[in-house]
Amino acid sequence: MWSEAINQMLRQWMRKGALTLHLPDGTARSYGDGTAPQVTLRIHDDATLRRLALNPDLALGEAYMEGSLTVDGDDLHGLLELVLRNFGGGRRSWWNLPGRWLRKARRGLDQRNIAASSRRNVAHHYDLPPRLYDLFLDEDRQYSCAYFRDPGDGLEQAQLQKKHHIARKLRLEPGLRVLDIGCGWGGMALTLARDYGVQVTGVTLSEEQLKVAQRRAREEGLEDRVEFRLQDYRAVTETFDRIVSVGMFEHVGLPQFDPYFRAVHDLLAEDGVALVHTIGWAGPPGSTNPWIAKYIFPGGYIPSLSEVAPVIENNGLWLTDLECLRLHYALTLRHWYDRFTARLDEAREINDETFVRMWKFYLVASEQSFRFNRQDVFQFQISKRLDAVPITRDYLYRSGLVPRQAEVETLDRARDHAAE
Amino acid sequence: MWSEAINQMLRQWMRKGALTLHLPDGTARSYGDGTAPQVTLRIHDDATLRRLALNPDLALGEAYMEGSLTVDGDDLHGLLELVLRNFGGGRRSWWNLPGRWLRKARRGLDQRNIAASSRRNVAHHYDLPPRLYDLFLDEDRQYSCAYFRDPGDGLEQAQLQKKHHIARKLRLEPGLRVLDIGCGWGGMALTLARDYGVQVTGVTLSEEQLKVAQRRAREEGLEDRVEFRLQDYRAVTETFDRIVSVGMFEHVGLPQFDPYFRAVHDLLAEDGVALVHTIGWAGPPGSTNPWIAKYIFPGGYIPSLSEVAPVIENNGLWLTDLECLRLHYALTLRHWYDRFTARLDEAREINDETFVRMWKFYLVASEQSFRFNRQDVFQFQISKRLDAVPITRDYLYRSGLVPRQAEVETLDRARDHAAE
């Protein structure tokens, strides 16, 4: 019965690519138009069949984690390309089964993100052993979309470029006070303080991240210019000349969008500039994928532009620029995947095989969502006065303006050379 | 009684700047904090007092047109700065008196913009004698926000830069088919055909504009590359590699936002790029100022981003870039005002004094709305595939890519020189 339900579903939806499905009873069936990618999937027991038929969004990732579903050659990229190109994208999302009303109600509960649950949700992900992140992130532990001037750029270079691209958008001058909302392991704050001479306050809810960030500030001798705090951004009371928030808004949750931008408004000086960098959804609002919500980012929510625009407008802020970085995150995630899979033995020392497979599934599902679904990255540049930034965006693309760091000057020269 | 009502209103709201008000009975009162601008306003009869008290949004412009209200030194810029800084801006708009529901209902009627009323509304403004537009526009008759690399740029140069900035965003290649929705007097279409070798179809609802555009195509010998039509964009049936629409979306009206972007989707090739350039409102949705709706742009509506984002998302389109040009339109309008007022004698030959004053009020009110209210300009770059444009925006800011026109090469050299 369950195998027939799955057969019906695949016959109806599988149009692009080729899928061969091996069932627990030893039979096999093929679907699709025979084009690439060609994927062979094996389901090893009847219970998995049943779960996949009833709740595919959650069960696919779970069955892969457990090993009750395998892909020949471990071709997760191929599998998730098939899933997203045939069941996702466009106006329909492969996980949007419950109705709009139900989704709204669930969102209200899952994403309440009052101070206590925020801290718990953050701990779920960011208090994992720091060693885990060393396996796949760059040296500065930038855990967000990098900026590739060229798709062939290395990860270290692209993360460096991301920090300086954001720094340019912030229009920094020595001595300015900068608030970093969701400062992570401190890489952005330290870069801004070191290379631009600003005073940075970084807030995080992760104790593990705080420890690392504070140690790095000490080691770099930047304690007089950078202060890290274990603090909810809603509890910050000072005002700042600049606000930067990278890869944090994804955790805010819809019910907190308005308070978030109200805080940006209230904490920002009158002539200030803010830069909010977040994963976005380039389609009508949807719900968070249940597998991601359960295993990776509880309480998170990927915003559509139509959900962010009203809260910017309602809080009296100017949107001065919106850049959409889409494929940069696909490139970033591929680097992370390649690094992670090159060090699987070390990963298995940190946690068990199920965790390792979960992490692989997370990295690949995310990458393929940027390539084959409507996942996007938004950089919102925001101000309170319409003349807080120059009238053209030339300043973002001119060389010779930026950092003192020798490394980056080299990058800039390489870029100018390429442009000639 | 009416003078007392106005007195109360001014005492309550006039905080910034200085206003001296001379009443019909010969008395005068002062308001504000004494800072610039200092404006002296004279109301010459009791009927005008009454209308101003009851319906200031409409009456201010009407009384100025009739001459029953005058400003010393004809300082309309000062007057409208006072109005907008004290009664507009922020979360409150000086004209948003009726409630949200009433506004919605009115909008439904005023902005229905079915084909017949669209044509009538367009004729109201764009079928005015072409000579009128020669008095204040640039030589190419670009009737939309220019692009100032430097605030000191001249109008001719800034309009040229605008066309080429948009052309870069369109990623043109010789031979591509381009649709220009709302082509005006044909300047953009002719520039794209001449300088980028593309095939352009321009549609307009203004018979006067069509005649001028067709004549220009003949005179320039571009008839084989440019076709102008008197056609509603909703009646276009072909598909195009590129779509450009500049200063037209303001006339679409809220009820037609979804059909407009559905048309962009349906008329655009799969790997196509569209650029929609429109005045926008950088705050929560409001209503059209009644004076503007009655005298200048019947059927028009200035969109908030929160009203455009959903229709982009719902129609399966990618927003690949959003530039906010705000002050560029203030600069443009100041050029138009300066040109217009330098040729008032010629304007009076075209129409009567009331019309001339109406036009001045329109130009100044618009300029000051960009400076002191939340008026903005949005350039939406849109595609159907996420890889239709390069992954960074460098291509918009690199020199040496663009047009064959000697003029523009000179501009590019000047710019590179300035950047050094």
Describe this structure in words.
Chain A is of the alpha/beta class and 420 residues long. The first copy, chain A, folds into 2 domains: 2-87, Nonspecific Lipid-transfer Protein, Chain A (2-Layer Sandwich); 109-325 and 372-419, 3-Layer(aba) Sandwich (Rossmann fold), CATH 3.40.50.150. The model of chain A is unreliable at 89-102 and 401-416 (pLDDT under 50). In chain A, 50% of the residues are buried. The N and C termini of chain A lie far apart (64 Å). Chain A is built from 17 helices and 11 strands. The longest helix of chain A is centred in the last third of the chain and has 20 residues, at 353-372. Chain A is 46% helix and 17% strand. In chain A, the strands form 2 sheets. Chain A has a 7-stranded mixed beta sheet with strand order 7-6-5-8-9-11-10, with helices on both faces. Chain A has helices spanning 2-13, 46-54, 56-66, 76-87, 100-110, 115-126, 130-134, 155-170, 187-196, 207-219, 257-267, 290-295, 305-314, 327-341, 344-350, 353-372, 406-419; strands at residues 18-22, 28-32, 38-43, 69-71, 177-181, 199-204, 226-230, 240-246, 268-281, 318-324, 375-383. Chain A is elongated. Chains A, B: InterPro entries: CFA/CMAS, CMAS, DUF7884, SAM-dependent_MTases_sf. Chains A, B: Keywords: Lipid metabolism, Methyltransferase, S-adenosyl-L-methionine, Transferase.
